[in-house]
Amino acid sequence: MRINLIPQEEKRVNVKPAFVKTLVISFLTFALLSITLGARYFLDTLKLKDIESQNQALKDKEDSLRDFKETFEKYRSHPALNILENHTYFSKLFDKLNSLSTDKIKISNIQVDESFLVTLGGQTQDGIAEVSRFLKTLKKEGFLETTVKSMSTQGQNVNFSLAFKATKEMVSK
């Protein structure tokens, strides 16, 4: 014997459509999430490639700057520049001495050593006073340690030898 406890008037509730709805919603959510993550991955890959190309461009510029810097350092430490920086221009000193001497003083010889000690020999026909004026002019124009090494007279003619020190500024550029 079979007993049916479900009344005939009630309809059976079908569970299948709720399960299908849940399955469809889950599939759509998964698909939307996959599309979003895929798009994000694609955009991040593009950004990464752009950043890598910018990084490579910066490295290339850095290499060219490094080459420029090495060339500049070689140029800056070149021996010719050192020679030019420490070069002494005695012609400046000689021009200055020429401008300081008067027409009455005839300079016959000049010697200069490495420490810029100048020994100057000359003569004048105007006596010791003219030599004294020349010596004062040298002191006034910045020459240091001015001394008379020797002096001899023959009437009004005076032969003299002076020693003085020129400054580095007087012989450098």
Please give a quick description of this structure.
With 173 residues, this protein is of the alpha+beta class. It has helices at residues 16-76, 79-85, 90-100, 128-140, 168-171, and strands at residues 105-112, 117-124, 144-154, 157-165.
Structure description:
The protein starts with 15 loop residues before the first helix and ends with a helix. 8% of the residues are buried. It is 55% helix and 21% strand. It is built from five helices and four strands. It has a four-stranded antiparallel β-sheet with strand order 1-2-4-3, covered by helices on one side. The protein has 173 residues and is an alpha+beta fold. Strand 3 and strand 4 form a beta hairpin.
> Could you say which overall geometry the principal axes of the C-alpha atoms support?
rod-shaped
How far apart are the termini?
A: 131 Å
**Total helical elements:** 5
Q: Estimate what percentage of residues fall within beta strands.
A: 15-25%
Largest sheet: 4 strands, antiparallel
Please outline the helices and strands.
Elements (H helix, E strand, L loop, with lengths): L15 H61 L2 H7 L4 H11 L4 E8 L4 E8 L3 H13 L3 E11 L2 E9 L2 H4 L2
Antiparallel strand pairs: 1-2, 2-4, 3-4
Record keyword descriptors for this entry.
173 residues; 4 strands; 5 helices
